[in-house]
């Protein structure tokens, strides 16, 4: 059983808040005292996730025959790389070494990337769209815990991700061959469990008691609701 590095972190308590997209104020928030991770965990995991998405998408470009499809995938890859670079910049501004901050998360997040890598290109594109969407939302909900640094991260995560280009490739494939619909619906449902484990693993306690479970429930309910909307927008069952 993997012992997540951030589960051993017992630094000063943080506050986890639920926020809507575009909201950088204090409205509509739910507090989770002592559950949010340290700022190094927050920044290190968020930065390494974006690097992983860039790497996964870049691997799809060479074997893709159609030039227009290559360009679509490259736009999404470039957006992930831009977010990674911006998050690395935030880490450097804090006086830390980005490699040192990201290194504890390399092994578990590489394992996550392997587990959510599809056997087919469309499955992998869907993996990036779904897992990045869910985890971006999760890190947006965490960002309110970290003051000005959290606001900077929220602005970075709000930047255009260009994943709509991937969505278009997926919906075009379904329109051309209806068999993709059931296969990708099943794959999308499989992704949820692995992604929620990453989110849950980022919270400070190794296990949550009943009261803590109740406090985090709205965050994960929101994540699942947004996942269902993403799947429905592609004509897929969540």
Describe the structure.
- Residues 42-197 form the Ferritin-like domain.
- This is Ferritin-like domain-containing protein.
- This protein is mostly helical.
- The chain has one domain: Ferritin, core subunit, four-helix bundle (Ferritin, Up-down Bundle), CATH 1.20.1260.
- It contains nine helices and no strands.
- It is globular, with a radius of gyration of 18 Å.
- The model is unreliable at 1-30 (pLDDT under 50).
Summarize it.
The chain is mostly helical and 238 residues long. It has one domain (38-233): Ferritin (Up-down Bundle), CATH 1.20.1260. The protein has 9 helices and no strands.
Number of domains: 1
Over the alpha carbons, how many angstroms does the gyration radius reach? 18 Å
Strand fraction equals under 5%
Largest sheet: none
For the secondary structure, the number of strands is: 0
Span of the ends, CA to CA: 29 Å
SSE string, helices as H and strands as E: HHHHHHHHH
- Write the CATH fold name: Ferritin
The total of helices stands at 9
CATH superfamily: Ferritin, core subunit, four-helix bundle
CATH architecture, by name, is Up-down Bundle
CATH class: Mainly Alpha
Task: Estimate percent helicity.
Answer: 55-70%
Mean pLDDT: 85
Structural category: mainly alpha
Q: What is the overall shape?
A: globular
Low-confidence stretches: 1-30
Protein name: Ferritin-like domain-containing protein
Organism: Microbacterium flavum
InterPro entries: Ferritin-like, Ferritin_actino
